TrEMBL record:
<dbReference type="Pfam" id="PF01937">
    <property type="entry name" value="ARMT1-like_dom"/>
</dbReference>
<comment type="similarity">
    <text>Belongs to the damage-control phosphatase family. Sugar phosphate phosphatase III subfamily.</text>
</comment>
<dbReference type="GO" id="GO:0006974">
    <property type="term" value="P:DNA damage response"/>
</dbReference>
<dbReference type="GO" id="GO:0016791">
    <property type="term" value="F:phosphatase activity"/>
</dbReference>
<dbReference type="GO" id="GO:0046872">
    <property type="term" value="F:metal ion binding"/>
</dbReference>
<feature type="domain" description="Damage-control phosphatase ARMT1-like metal-binding">
    <location>
        <begin position="23"/>
        <end position="367"/>
    </location>
</feature>
<dbReference type="InterPro" id="IPR002791">
    <property type="entry name" value="ARMT1-like_metal-bd"/>
</dbReference>
<dbReference type="InterPro" id="IPR039763">
    <property type="entry name" value="ARMT1"/>
</dbReference>
<keyword id="KW-0479">Metal-binding</keyword>
<dbReference type="InterPro" id="IPR036075">
    <property type="entry name" value="ARMT-1-like_metal-bd_sf"/>
</dbReference>
<keyword id="KW-0378">Hydrolase</keyword>
<keyword id="KW-0464">Manganese</keyword>
<protein>
    <recommendedName>
        <fullName>Damage-control phosphatase ARMT1-like metal-binding domain-containing protein</fullName>
    </recommendedName>
</protein>
């Protein structure tokens, strides 16, 4: 299936641009953070130092011959991009491959004791254990007596704004968490979103998750709320098959999040226990598809994933990176149609995302003009959000 033909693919080779800053500054900062996070041995430290040098000045190197996912990466573009500068290949590709190389450096895929050890786990755990998470969970008790539409809205917005909790983003956006979110969404199709869940409660919802911790917890609460009220019959939660973009959720993070909920007092604990039952009886399943960490737009998804999304009543994509992959990581005007950009998608689809990179579609000209009048930071500073549906 061809990618949307208009608008050029974003590269990271323009000094001063946001993508360039991610490759030149955020990635080295992530390596330094990982180096300090766990007691890695000399071999791992050497490999991390080598990656630090390579990602700033060097070229994309192939994966080792025995890497389990070598064939997949060759097909995803490595065959074409090996030997080129990290800055001259599609930005989305370069970022994804950076995380793959980071896992290589710490021995995540190699036989031995470090296999499967998440280098980002310490930062993810610290966030999940933070007192802010307790406060957010306690706030759920205040929703009990609200009318249903208000509770719907609160839980949807909890999941939406939970996307600000993104540990990679915070590394290069100091104080982002403390900045007030903008009062209005730049696009709001929430009514359409709710209308896609039929009142007979038969819907199957797919939620393509983004970050662990303080984003995944409100995602889980939203699913629990929908299952508890028989608004959906079943849910599938897609997480990443391995650590990615610092705080993206993997299965271990789902288990941590569920445990955090199950052991919380009040309504949060009830939601957690409901989710445990839903997992036991198959109403809630978790998937970790290899394509979830692919360096490609969803337009190029494999057939099995396409069939799964086609069968869902609604698929919800969370977060900035999933948005870039959903609409294509291309330079489009913000008024380009979201419906056209997602026309390839095999079923009803929604995006819940705070804006942390420049890709955006579906804005009205008036909204764009209002935002641009105050500068361009709205596109990347995480203070604005959208709910879009096709
Ligand atoms: O997908 P998320 O967690 O909402 O955001 C991911 C992000 O922090 O990383 C990318 C840049 O590295 C951008 O897409 C965005 O800034």
């Amino acid at each position: 299936m061809p990618e949307t033909p208009f608008a050029s693919v974003i590269l990271g080779n323009e000094p001063g641009s946001f993508p360039h800053g991610v490759l030149a500054e955020r990635h080295p900062a992530i390596i330094r953070q990982v180096r300090d996070a766990l007691p890695y041995g000399p071999g791992q430290r050497r490999a991390l130092d080598e990656l630090l040098r390579n990602c700033a000045e060097g070229t994309v190197e192939p994966l080792p011959a025995d890497a389990p996912d070598r064939a997949a990466w060759q097909a995803w573009g490595l065959a074409e991009y090996a030997g080129r500068s990290w800055f001259d290949v599609p930005w989305l590709w370069s970022e994804s491959y950076f995380y793959r190389r980071l896992l290589e450096a710490v021995g995540y895929f190699a036989p031995g004791p470090w296999r499967g050890i998440d280098p980002f786990r310490p930062v993810k755990r610290a966030e999940l254990d933070a007192p802010e998470t307790d406060r957010e969970l306690a706030a759920l008790d205040g929703l009990r007596d609200l009318p249903e539409p208000e509770r719907d809205r609160a839980l949807l917005h909890g999941s939406l704004w939970g996307n600000r909790a993104d540990l990679g983003f915070r590394l290069s956006a100091e104080g982002a968490e403390d900045r007030e979110p903008a009062p209005a969404l730049v696009a709001d199709d929430s009514e359409r979103l709710w209308s896609l869940l039929p009142p007979d409660g038969t819907a199957g919802l797919v939620l393509v998750a983004d970050n662990a911790g303080r984003e995944l917890v409100p995602d889980l609460l939203l699913l629990a709320h929908l299952l508890a009220g028989d608004r959906i019959a079943r849910a599938v939660l897609h997480v990443k098959p391995h650590p990615y973009y610092v705080s993206d959720a993997i299965m271990a993070d789902v288990l941590d999040g569920l445990e955090r909920l199950r052991t919380a007092p009040g309504a949060a604990g009830e939601h957690g226990r409901l989710l445990r039952r839903a997992m036991a009886d198959g109403r809630l399943t978790v998937r970790a598809h290899p394509f979830s960490c692919a360096p490609l737009p969803y337009e190029r998804m494999p057939d099995d994933l396409r069939a799964e999304f086609a069968a869902a009543t609604l698929t919800v994509f969370k977060g900035d990176l999933n948005y870039r992959r959903l609409v294509g990581d291309r330079r489009r005007p913000p008024t380009a149609s979201f419906a056209a950009a997602t026309a390839y998608f095999p079923g009803p689809v929604a995006a819940l995302r705070t804006l942390k990179s420049e890709v955006v579609t579906g804005l009205t000209a008036a909204t764009e003009a209002r935002l641009v009048a105050a500068g361009q930071r709205w596109r990347t500073d995480g203070t604005h959000a959208l709910v879009q549906v096709n």
